[in-house]
Amino acid sequence: MRRLLVHSVLTLLVSVHLVRSGDCPTYCKCDTTGTSGIHAKCSAFDDTQQFGLEIAYLDLSNIPKSSGLKLTDRIFSNVGLKRISSITLANSALKEIHVNAFHGLHNLNQLNLSRNHLGLLEPDMFANNTHLEKLSLSQNSLQNMQVKNSPYSEYFLNIPSLQDLDLSGCSLSHLLPTMFKKLTTVTYVNLASNNISDIPKETFAPLLDLGDLDLSDNKVSQLSSDMFENNSEINSLTMRNNPLSSLRSVQIESLQILDLSLCKFTTIDMDTFVGFPNMRDLNLSANAITSINSNAFKKMTKLQNLDLSNNKLIGPLSDDIFVKNVQLETLKLANNPQMKRFPETGFKEEFSEIYFLDASRCGLTHLEEDNLKRLDHLRRLYLSGNEIQYIKPGVLSPKIIFLDLSGNKIAHLDQVSFPSGSSLRTLYLSGNPIKKISPANFVNTARLKSLHLNSCELKQLWDTTETALRPLKFLSYLNIANNKIKSLSPKDLNYIEHVQTLVLSGNPLTCNDDMKKLVTLLTEREVASSDATQMKQFEEMKITGAVDLVSMKYELGWEKFMNYICQEKQRLIDITKPDYSGDKVVDPKSISDESEDKIILEPPSDHTEMVFDIEEIAFISTGIPEHALNYFPEDIHKDPVTHTKINYTWPIIIVILSAFSIILALLIFVALFLRWSRQKNSYRNRNARRLSICRTALYQQLYEDPNTPTTPVMMTKDPEHASEQRIYTSPNDDTNKTTTDTAQPISKVSYLSSPFHHSNIVPESV
């Protein structure tokens, strides 16, 4: 772990040093991209530049035409980019490429040449790039490469390792049978947005590993029956927006995803999809389909997602149309206005896995008890834009968690029967002519969290005097915007005590004490006034981890909301507000008929000028009548929050300094650790040597060399012979000189009898 940490820190420092040390060429900016390499973004590129760095990613996009960009012989290798793995050269007015421009780039893996002016490419241009897997030539005019008289008609490109090829928007009108002859490893081909009308049946034969083919936005009117007989791995085929009206006799057994949207299908016969037994996702939206044979989908037993929206289906559908689709999960029937109704007895047999059903704008007038029978797993039901007036008991499953009934003709909620113990979480009733609601209407939907009642005809929030009902204790979102509600009071919150977002905009609310008390209560509870306010509050909490409660209350949008109602700038919440008692405010009653058409009000809160017409001032103190709603901005309910400009300079500087301090501390720690480690090892070595020497001295046998001088006699002081003199000879003196010295009285003690003689030394006693 320690070595890994040291290695990571050193790698980071070396990378930063290299990037800053000046080997990045002029007109380029080099940055590290983690452990994957260095990224270079250049605004110009030629063979005079030198890249001394280990560049892994080179971005030459959007180079101006005036720079005259040219890719000459081995240009990338010559400028030091031999280890490059990804090159992006898009939208740079490139017209031609030398056949050897990419030679020597053995690590090149991705190449993007889209949105240039390339007309012809040498087929063997990339033969040397043995690791190239992804190539994009999108939006280049390459039509001349797929004509019979082209010098490159033998094969399109020779890239032995290519997997993904993007040729979308290349003005191709024909595909030659030899096009993919040298691209046998390709698994994905994008030929969308060309002018292809004819495809020879041998075209895709060499692509044995082809898995995904996109032919959308072309002019293909038919497919050969044996066109994909060699493509046993193909999984996805996109034919969107082609004049294709039939797939009869076409067989692709491995196909799982088929997109036929915006084609020309008018009927679906029993043999249309016989050749697709493993189909999982089928998109038939935006055709002109009027009828579907009851056996059309029976061969697709693995079908999970079916989209039949935006057609001309005439209902009801056959009750056994999905009898074999036991794995079907999502069914989209939206915008088939002639369908009118579901099968009266519901769909037959095993149709139980579906959880998503969209029947919006299908001309439905009502739902019978058995219409949705056997849909035991249904969770999301979309019925908006119909003409439904009532829903009988037993129609809705208690397992539904999302129900959209907006834009229908429901006038009374008691005509919509919610099952007992309903799991409903979200309910849309917007755009219905509902004039009143009661908490009793939601007794069976105790788990409801989001309720949309905007653009109805409500004149008051609750039509009840029953205070014991508490059916909406989990409701957190309520939208009653654009109704006809004139008055609200704190009592209206008794049934929605835990609401977090309450949208009231677009109502002719009166500026009275009850309304002010309600807004004060909503502010204290930190209830958001719009979706945008709630989202902003959530983002602030997510980014900062905590939000200042005082500032949050000012940014909930209620103050601005009340300013539009009362037409005057004032603070409704008493949270350390300044005293503006000395400021002058114009009294509307003092305005005479001779006054000018425009007057200027100076609101005390921010002293910004507000210009009003005389007609607008007339209802400031008396409330806002219905016709005054035109003065309200349309997007008040979208973003009533007063946005403040935040300076992020200091936080950025603090973050940078903190990161630098952490890196510096890590480096100091590593240095101290290495120094301590060396000192510890040195101490151990010295101690080991000392211990070795001591052991050698203790246990080595002592002896006397016979050639050495006689063992000297040891002298000791003797107080009794203080006056005696002794003549002795120094054993280290080579001359015959004798030295007479007056010495202390001594006793004759020999070394041989000393306790320190080697024969008397015992190692354990030392």
Outline: globular
Oligomer: single chain
Extended strand count: 29
Radius of gyration over all CA atoms, rounded: 45 Å
Question: What summary fits the major beta sheet?
Answer: 21 strands, mixed
Distance between the termini: 47 Å
| Mean of all residue-level pLDDT scores | 78
Q: Report the helical percentage.
A: 10-25%
Backbone structural class: alpha/beta
Tell me the β content: 5-15%
Q: Which consecutive residue ranges, at least 5 long each, have pLDDT under 50?
A: 1-22, 540-554, 568-645, 691-706, 710-752
| Number of alpha- plus pi-helical segments | 8
Could you explain how this protein is built, in words?
This protein is α/β, with parallel strands linked by helices and 766 residues long. Among the domains are: 245-434, Ribonuclease Inhibitor (Leucine-rich repeat, LRR (right-handed beta-alpha superhelix)); 443-665, no CATH class. Helix content is 16%, strand content 12%. The protein is built from eight helices and 29 strands. It has helices spanning 2-20, 75-78, 513-524, 531-544, 549-554, 558-566, 614-617, 649-699, and strands at 28-32, 38-42, 55-59, 86-88, 110-112, 134-136, 164-166, 188-190, 212-214, 236-238, 257-259, 267-268, 281-283, 291-292, 305-307, 330-332, 356-358, 380-382, 402-404, 426-428, 450-452, 477-479, 501-503, 598-601, 610-613, 713-714, 726-728, 739-741, 749-750. The protein has a 21-stranded mixed β-sheet. The protein has a two-stranded parallel sheet with strand order 12-14. It has a two-stranded antiparallel ribbon with strand order 24-25. A hairpin with a 5-residue loop joins strand 1 (28-32) and strand 2. The longest helix has 51 residues, at 649-699. It is globular and about 85 Å long. Mean pLDDT is 78; it is low at 1-22, 540-554, 568-645, 691-706 and 710-752.
